Amino acid sequence: MSNVTSPEFFEAREVPLGGVRGVKVDRVLPQRELPTLGAWCFLDQFGPGIAEMIVLPHPHIGLQTVTWPLAGEIRHRDSVGSDVVLRPGQLNLMTSGRGVAHSEVSLTGGVHALQLWVALPADATQIDPGFEHHAQLPNFRSEGIDALVFMGALGDVESHATTYTPLVGAQIDVTEGTIPLRPDFEYGVLVIDGSVRVADVELKPGPLLYLGTGRDEITLAGPARVVLLGGLPFPDDLVMWWNFVGRSHDEILAAREQWENQDTTRFGTVAGHGSDRIPAPVLPNLRLKPRKQPSRQQ
Ligand code: MN
C-alpha cells in the first residue's frame, strides 16, 4: 500500500437541465481537476424523487451512455431501433460509435438515476452504434459486501456489458467489508444512501471521493449503498461539448451541424417522437479546447 494517492473530495454541482419541467441534476463529473476517472467522463445524478423526466431525442458521439436507475422506471428508445423499459438493478448501455440518438422518458414518479458516459478510445470512435440491455448482472459477494457489477470487473466477477477500455462500475451494498482493487486503476466512490468510512474519511451522499491509483484493496464501513467507479487512467485530452465527446473543435462542430441539419445518415431516427427533438445549443464564439488531464502524483 505504498505510493497510494491521498483521497480527494470532488463536490457535485447543481445543473439545470433545460426542458419543460426544468429538472435539476447534480453533476459529479467532469471536474476541472478530474476530467475523467478511468474512461468515465460524465456523471449526473437525477433525483431522488423526480416526478417526471422527459428527455427528447438527442445525439451522442464518442462515448457510451450508461444508465443506472436507483428508483423508478425509464423507457429508452434509440436510433438503432431499441425500445426498452429499464428498472433498478438493470443496465442500459448505448455505444454511440460515430453517431446515435436516443430518448429517455420516465414511466413512474420518484425517479432516481445515475447517467454516466464512458469515453471511447480513439480507435472505437467510428464504429457502428449499438445498444445493450442487461437485465441480469453478476454479483460480487464477500463478507459484508453485496455488489452488482454493471460494467467491467470487480475482482474476478465481470459484467457481460461491452467495454472498450479496462474499467469498473459497481453498485455495492456494504455493512463492513473489503473489496479487491487493481493498483493500475484509479477509483472513485459515490454514496447513494447511508454513509461510509473509507480511506480514513467519512463519505456521505453528494461528493465523489477520488481514491487515485496504487491500491490493491479497500475497506468500506457502512451501512451504505455506494457506487464504485474506476479504470485505467484515460490517456487522451477530450473535447466535451453538449452531448458530444471528441478530440477536436472541428469534430464537435461537424457533429453539431449534422444534428441541426437532421442528417439521418449519421444519427438515424428515434421512432415515436414525430419531429420533437432537442436542438443543439449555439456554439461559443471560440475554438473548443480539450480538457487537459492533470498530472497526478502516482
Ligand atoms: Mn443521452
UniProtKB/TrEMBL annotation:
<dbReference type="Pfam" id="PF05726">
    <property type="entry name" value="Pirin_C"/>
</dbReference>
<dbReference type="InterPro" id="IPR012093">
    <property type="entry name" value="Pirin"/>
</dbReference>
<dbReference type="InterPro" id="IPR014710">
    <property type="entry name" value="RmlC-like_jellyroll"/>
</dbReference>
<feature type="domain" description="Pirin N-terminal">
    <location>
        <begin position="23"/>
        <end position="118"/>
    </location>
</feature>
<dbReference type="Pfam" id="PF02678">
    <property type="entry name" value="Pirin"/>
</dbReference>
<dbReference type="InterPro" id="IPR011051">
    <property type="entry name" value="RmlC_Cupin_sf"/>
</dbReference>
<dbReference type="InterPro" id="IPR008778">
    <property type="entry name" value="Pirin_C_dom"/>
</dbReference>
<dbReference type="InterPro" id="IPR003829">
    <property type="entry name" value="Pirin_N_dom"/>
</dbReference>
<feature type="domain" description="Pirin C-terminal">
    <location>
        <begin position="178"/>
        <end position="262"/>
    </location>
</feature>
<comment type="similarity">
    <text>Belongs to the pirin family.</text>
</comment>
<protein>
    <submittedName>
        <fullName>Pirin family protein</fullName>
    </submittedName>
</protein>
